[in-house]
Each structure stands twice: as structure tokens, then as C-alpha cells.
Automatic annotation (TrEMBL):
GO terms for molecular function: 4 iron, 4 sulfur cluster binding; metal ion binding; tRNA-2-methylthio-N(6)-dimethylallyladenosine(37) synthase activity. Belongs to the methylthiotransferase family. MiaB subfamily. One of its GO terms (cellular component) is cytosol. The keyword tRNA processing applies. Keywords: 4Fe-4S, Cytoplasm, Iron, Iron-sulfur, Metal-binding, S-adenosyl-L-methionine, Transferase, tRNA processing. This is tRNA-2-methylthio-N(6)-dimethylallyladenosine synthase.
Amino acid sequence: MSHPSFFIKTFGCQMNSRDSEIMAQTLSEKGYVESMDMETSDLVILNTCSIRAKAEQKVMSLLGMLRNVRKRRPSMRICVAGCVAEQEGARLMERMPHVDLVLGTQNIYQLTTLLDNLDQAGRIATGLSPDYEIPAYIPVIPTFSDEQDRPFRKFLTIMQGCNNFCSYCVVPHTRGREISRKVKDIVAEAQALVDAGIKEITLLGQNVNSFGQTNSVTEDGSPYPFSLLLREISQLNGLKRLRFTTSNPKDLSDDLMRCFSEIDILCHHFHLPVQSGSNAVLKQMNRKYTRELYLDRVAGLRSYCSDISLSTDMIVGFPGETDEDFEQTMDLLETVRFHGSFSFKYSDRPGTRSSAFDNKVEEDLKTRRLQRFQKRQDEISLEHNQSFIDQTVEIMIEKISDEGLAGRTGSNHIVHVNDSNLPPCHPGDLLQVKIDHGGPHSLRGKLPAE
Ligand code: 5AD
Ligand code: SF4
């Protein structure tokens, strides 16, 4: 009997990447094989994102296209997973009659059971449950197409959901209440990854800083902060790099900052989303910190780790954002001088509090503000990148080709190395490189002279 094939298209964040990998593994265990061609696959899974309207539109247009494919191949099964599935649920079933399975964000572990049930049920939609617990057994897979170019590094989900309810954000609605995994399960998964040859682990959660604060993560119920988890995982023999994302500044503890001066393998990069430089806007966003507190955390991080590279997320054109508010955002950028940032125009999301605010900023003005922010960020990033010139940095090799190789510094900078005298090396190896060029998005270098 031939094996059914599956194709997964992943949109959005790292959380979704990891979820896709878990779905791929559970399917492989049931005899499915991965296909690179969506149109000829027996099962197509769209693992979706709804963080901004644009992300959701992409999903909808792909689903529209699949309607025709399904007409030609009625045996094809179509599954929508991820945040759009959670948010749209039953509505999606109505609008898209060619979708067989709407898989909520907490239901990925039941994927194969639900697929089996489709024969009887016809179509199925699942959703969030208040009693959800993250299953103990999380499979590990060596390769999946999404990951093929980096078989030496993996994401490890340590918690799901979010309790913060920032007024613009759909995540608490699509991923449910915050829940942390048990420490022993996390450590077992990290150990399994290291045993499988993984060199770099990124711990994932919407707000890792509040790990273990909403449910017990130890056998005896004793408190176990995120900083302790970092210290424990950093002890694993063979692990070369440790990262985490993402953090809310309001919960960033002093002990977590101290980890950067005490844990050797913790990469010197911190992604600390600020979202706005204006206290008035931060308040409307329900971020629960001020610009002053944010700057204080940045100073703290830099005092423990002077070369830490900082990146952030920024939203421009939040409802009610005045010219002065936006100047505060520009001023924060000048003050912190982020190494890089992800910046977005505010986008109304269904079910969020800010979508009902009546003082929306015009699209044109949002565009102009975004362009101004991004232009200045690009200049600052370039200046940072040029300051690496003549420094010797350690990279983890990601890709090797005939022309040379590319890798990444602990600070999360991509480095291209064109050198005819490269030693024998593999992806995942660490290599010392002397930087001779800093461009807008990456660095270039050579092997240091002996
Ligand atoms: N509009 C624009 N950007 C948003 N983000 C989250 N929700 C919205 C929204 N409604 C951004 C935030 C967050 C990042 C993942 O996406 O900056 O940190
Ligand atoms: Fe969304 Fe705020 Fe939670 Fe981040 S902390 S996922 S922005 S609600």
C-alpha cells in the first residue's frame, strides 16, 4: 500500500514552526510521508497566523486557490491549523466548504486521531479548552523541510498562551491562557535534542519571563523561575548555544539579566519588544510598563553584558498616537540604538480591545511613520554592523557552498565568509571569523591570520 503524503505550509512565528514540526512528526509516525508539492499531496495543512490582517489575507487567498485544486482532486484533505483556525473556527467551516479539519492551537497532538475520525464525522472543527495541559511527550524529529537548512538548531516550546491581553493583540484569543510545561518534560526534550546532535536550542514562549508563574512546573509545587530553567538546560553536555524568545519587559527579572554574565553558552542577544516609546500609548496598549522602566531594563542588561545586542518589536500608528507620541518612539530608538527591529503598522484585529477604539490613525500617516522609523533603524543597524569591522567573532556555521559559508554570531548577526582556505567544517560547527565588512543586513569576514 502506498503511503499518504502530506504538505505543511507554515505562516507566522517560531511557535508555529515548532507546531508544524510536531504535526510532521506525528504524521510520520503514522506512515505519512512529506511531500514538497502542495497540489499533489493527499493532505495539505496550512498552519496559519492572524497577528495582523495581512497575515490572515495570505491564508485566505491560498485557501481560495486550494478550492480549485480540491475540485480536481476530491480525495485531497485540507486542514487549517494555527491562529486563524482558532479565531475563525466555525466561521471558517462555513466560508470554506472545502476545508475538512479546523485544528485549534491546542489540538495539534490529536491531529492523526482527528484525521481518522474524518471518515465518520465528515468535517471537524476543534477549539480551546479551559482544562488544557501540554502533553508530556513531545516528539523529536531529525529533519522536516522547514528545518532542513538548519538541522543543528531547534525550537523548544516551554509554554503556550498568554495572559497579558495587550489591547491590540490577538494571541490571548487564539492561543488561550498561559500555561507552562513541567520542568522535567522540558529538560527531557532538551536532552533528547542534544542526544540527536542539536547544537543550539531556542526556548519558546509568548512571555518566557513569566514561566512557571501561572501553574506549577515542578513535582512538589516549588517555584521554578525561568532563570533557573536556563541554568539547568545550559548544563547539558554538548549544547553549544542557548537562546530564548520572547519577553515582556514588565516581567524581566534581575536574575534573568544576570544569566547573561554567568551562563557561557547563553547568546548575547535579547529580543525585548517595546511596541512604543510613548507612555500614553503604552498605557492604551495595556503593556503595564513605562518607557522609563524599559530603559532601566536595557541599562540593567547592558550592565551585566556590555556587548549584548538588542532587538525589538515596534507598532506605529496605534489608535490615538499623536505626532508627539511618535517622536517619543523615534527618541527611544535614538536612545537605545537597537541592533535591529521588527516594525509594523497597527492593524485592527477582531476581538481585541483596540479594534473598538475610535481614534484610528489614517493609513497614509501610518505608512509615513513606518518608513521614517525603518529608515532610521536601517542607518543605526548599519552603524552597528560597521562597528564589528576588525573584530574577531565566533559564528555557528549555517550553510556551506562552493563560494564559502554563512553563519550567525551569538548576537544574531549573519556573517558571510569567502575564504579559499576554509578548514573542513559542517553546519553547526563554531568558527572564529575576522570581520572586514559591515553591510545593512549582514557582515562579511575571513579566517583570522594565525
Ligand atoms: N497590529 C500590528 N502589529 C501587531 N503585533 C501584534 N499585534 C499587532 C497588531 N494588531 C506585533 C507586535 C508583536 C509582534 C509579534 O507583532 O509588535 O510584538
Ligand atoms: Fe500579545 Fe502582549 Fe501576549 Fe505578546 S505579551 S502575545 S503582545 S498579549
